[in-house]
Amino acid sequence: MKKGFNLFILGLIMFLGCLVDVKADAIAAPFENKEIFIHDWDAEPAIASQYEFLLGSNMSYYEYGFVMSDVEADYYDNVYTTTLSNYDIAGNVVKEKVLKNTIIFNLQVIDERIYTLSLDLSSITGDPIISIVIYDMNFKIDEQYILGGDGLFGEFLNSVYDSKQYNLDVFSTDEDGNGYFLLFGTPLVLAFGPDYDGVEFFEDFDLFNEYFSYYSFLVNESDEVGFVGYDKKDDTIVASGVVGCNFGGLEDFMTPQGIRSNVKSCANNGVIALYEDEKQVWENDYYDYSMIINPHIVGDYIVALGYSYDGSEVIVLDMEGTIIQKIQLDDEYYFLEGGDKSFMVSSLELDSDSICAITEDQNVFGLEFEDPADVGERDDRCYTKVNQVWYIPLTIETKTDGNGTVTAVPSSRYGEDVSFTVTPKEGFVLGEVKVTDEFGNVVIFTDYHFTMPNANVVIDVTFLPENSETADIAIVALVVIALGTGIVLLKNRKRLN
Question: Domain residue spans in the chain?
Answer without folding.
Answer: 29-169+221-392, 395-466, 470-497
